[in-house]
Every structure is written in C-alpha cells, then in structure tokens.
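Page 42, continued from yesterday. The earlier attempt failed because a stray header line got pasted into the input along with the sequence. Redoing it now with the clean sequence only.
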Amino acid sequence: MTGGGMAGSRVSADACSDEALRRQVLATLMPGFAGTVLPEWLRRRLAEGLGGVCVFGPNIRSLTQLRELTDAIREANPHALISIDEEGGDVTRLFYDVGSPYVGHAVLGRLDSLEATTATARAVGRALHDAGVNLDFAPDADINSNPDNPVIGVRSFGADTALVARHTAAWVRGLQATGVAASAKHFPGHGDTATDSHRALPVVTASAVELAARELEPFRAAIAAGVRTIMTSHILLPAYDSVNPATLSPAILQGLLRGHLGFTGLIVSDALDMAGASALSGIPEAAVGAIAAGCDLLCVGTENTDAQLTAIGTAVLAAVAAGRMPASRLASAAAAVRALGADLAGESASVPALASASASASASASASASASASAHTPTANDVVSTFDVSPAATAWLAGGPVDYLIRFETTPNEAVGDAPWWPWPTAVAATTATVLVVGDVESGRAAVDVIGAGTGTGRGRGRGRGRDTAGGTGTGVRLLVVGKANHLTPWVVETIGMLRASGTVVVVDMGWPSLDRQFADIATFGASAAVGGALRALLGDAV
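This time it went through. Structure tokens are written below.
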C-alpha cells in the first residue's frame, strides 16, 4: 500500500506505528492478478510484506511457467503464501487447459476408500509442491444435501454427513503430508444452498441444531486432522447471525469456529469480489468487515490491481483509526499469516521434488502426475464402479454404435470456469457418429431437425422420460447425449424431451444429477479428464 492513497491515513502520531500498521494490512491480503508473469506492482507489494498471491487458471500457461512465476513470488517474499484452487476434479487450475488427471470429491466419496482419497490428495499435493504452491483451497468440506445446488455439486464428497467428514479428514492428511497447507471450505457449510454466492447471497434456513449435526461435522473432522486453514463462505445463516454472511460474522468466525470448534489455525475469506461478500458494500468495506469478524487472510479475487489494494488498505486503516476495528485484531491476523508462511517455507524445503516439475506443458505434466500417483489412486475400473448406470442404459450400450453424439454446452459455474470437461480429448476420434453441439433451446431444435432429416422423421415433441425408460418413441436412430447437472437448466430439459421423441437415447450426466435420475441414464458424478477416460471405457464400442 504505497503511494498517495495510503499516505493520508494516519493512525497515530508515530510514523513508525503508521508503517507497522500499513505492513500489517499488507500481510492480510492475497490478491490475484492478470497475466502469466509477476507484475512489477505485485513484486513491490510482496517485498513490502504482502501476505500472498492467489493463482488462477488464466495465470498458468504450463507447469514450467508456473514454477517460474512462483519462484519469482518467493524471491520477492520468501514467506509468501501462494494459493490455488486445486480440488482434484472439476475445479482445477494446474490442468486448466487439459482437465485434471485426478477424480474429484464426489467420485471419491462414492468409491468410499479412505486410502484412495488420501492417495489422490497426496498426488495433488506433490504436483502443487513441484509447481511452488504452498496453500491449496481444498478440500471442499460441504455436504451436498441439496441436489439442486448450482455451485457445489460434484465438488462435495457426498450428501451423507459421516462420509463427508471422514473423507474430508483423509484429504487433509494426504495433502498436508506433501508440505502444502489445506483449506477446508466453505465454513460453516455451503451444501444446502440453491444460489451461487459468486452472483448473490445464499440463505440457509436450517436450525442451529440441524447445522451442528450436519454442516459442522466435516469441519470438526478437518480440525481433528490438523487442517492448517479454513475458508469462510459468503452465505447467510440466520440460526447463527441474521445480519452478516459468515465471512463478515464475528458470531460465526470467533464464536462458532474459534470458540465452539476450537480452531486455532488461519481463517481465510472466500474471494471478496464475489457478490455474496461485496455486492452491497464494495470490496474495501467487505475487507474491513472480514478482518474485524475474524478473518486473517483475505482472498481479494481475480485480476486485482495496485489501486484496489490501496483502496482496501485505506479503508482498513481508517477503520482502525475510527475505532471500528481494534488494532489488536489486525495485528493478530498479520501475525497468523506471517507465521504460517514461515512454517510452510521450512516444511516445503524438506519435501523432495518430482519429475513433474520439469514438464514443459500442462498436458505432459498431467501424464507425469498420473504416473507418479500412489497405487491407491483410483483406476479407470474403480471410477466406472462409482457410476450410476440404469438397466436401460446397460442394454443400450450393447446395441451397437452411436449415430449422433450430442454435447450440451451450459454456462459453467465460476468456481469451475472454462476447464475442459468433454470426455474426448479432441472432437471424437475413431467414430462414425455425427457430433452436434447444443447451447440453447433453439440449437436443440436445430439438432432435432438434423436428426430428423437423416432419418426421415419430423421434430419430436416429448418431455423428459424416467431413467428406466431410456430410449425414445421416434426412429431407431441411436443418440448419446452428454451434459452436466442436466436437470438444472430448463432448455436442456426441454431438448432432452425432444431428443427422446426422435430416437433411442441415452443421457449422460457428468454433474450431480437429480434424485430421480430423470435426466441421467448414466451419472458419472464428475467431469475431470480422469472421469472422462473412465466414461470412454464404459462406452466401449458404442462410440
């Protein structure tokens, strides 16, 4: 926080105290940035004591480039926290251009092997360690109790409290064994929401008794496993605080997390540029509220700027000067960040690097990471065993090759971003199927017309059919439809209905399906590259 924006914010008559407070504010901030090389403004902030940097998919061109970037960050501040969202599944940053070579939480939960979960987390941690990252915003400890959840879904280990708790603990242990700090998220639980906190403020109306028995248990397990950090959620839980979302709630962070659960590690905010945190107040005021509530480290967001950090610093120092935030709370937050950074710097040096650190591109690094994983990581057969395949789909698979392969392109949630999810690395190799991409109801109708033109039939008008009646009422043309969380998108539901009236259809859902599986004849509970490979194996000669 250099320059004129901070110079006028005096918090005492002592210039040394001003400087100490300014550096304490810097220590609590973890911005993102634009580009693939360290900007000069960010290098300067790091040298002045900036707490860390958050790396996102667009910041990564290859793992070699990422290691050069993290080396530059650490050269500017050897104790910087370098964070990333790498959940080992749909949410990937290391493999943003090719898809993760690891299965995600939902597949691990369905497999229900603690050895596989620990091994997968360890493999993720080794890849992160080799890339120079020391803080991973994972595991996702949310219980996906709402199948219509638009932002958690397959990022969760499941809908059962005990299962999610034991796998959260296993993931924490596996990751942290590599010298990378874990961050259980999104406290106190984002699974029972129907709103994406990137876009609005979700409200969870469960009682305190219900929340304690369900949402809190995975976090208890993470704490017992020694998790180094916990990330807050931008959700409103009236049972605990009817005014402030969790990130801004002293009752939730200091009363519940610190006091009741006894967590002594670092509390990290979810990104403050999300609507659930800052839509009404703006990011600087959200930063003030988050630190005052009990957050130690603030994930500011993506593609932040020097001017944004200046504005945050000005707001925080003004809050201290006005008595809205005790100076001791700011000092405590800064000390916690610095201590974790120093600890991780020492621990990381004791973990040997793997060959994947020298990979020239993320695709080759993906293969190297897969090869270096423990024998306990799930095989393709293991992954297939977790799929939910209807009897009708099983019969369909034996019926010969596909005539049309239809891909639903829906808007990904912002946590996943634009990472690839299609089961085939390229369009479709070695198949005679016609590939149709559908992105809205109009293109769905156009796809139906293409199919009808090829079979001499008109457009079908049916709505969705139950999963035990996979197929169609039209011609014998064979259609394979692939989407994610199909039931959540109205135009997808309508298009599936039309397609089922146009041919013999099997619908694949690579997200979290509805409970009735009406739009998921095959449910994979994930769309990472590892899951896509297992799906290809299941489909066999059909595609």
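Notes: The two ends are 57 Å apart (CA to CA).
Reminder to self: strip header lines before submitting.
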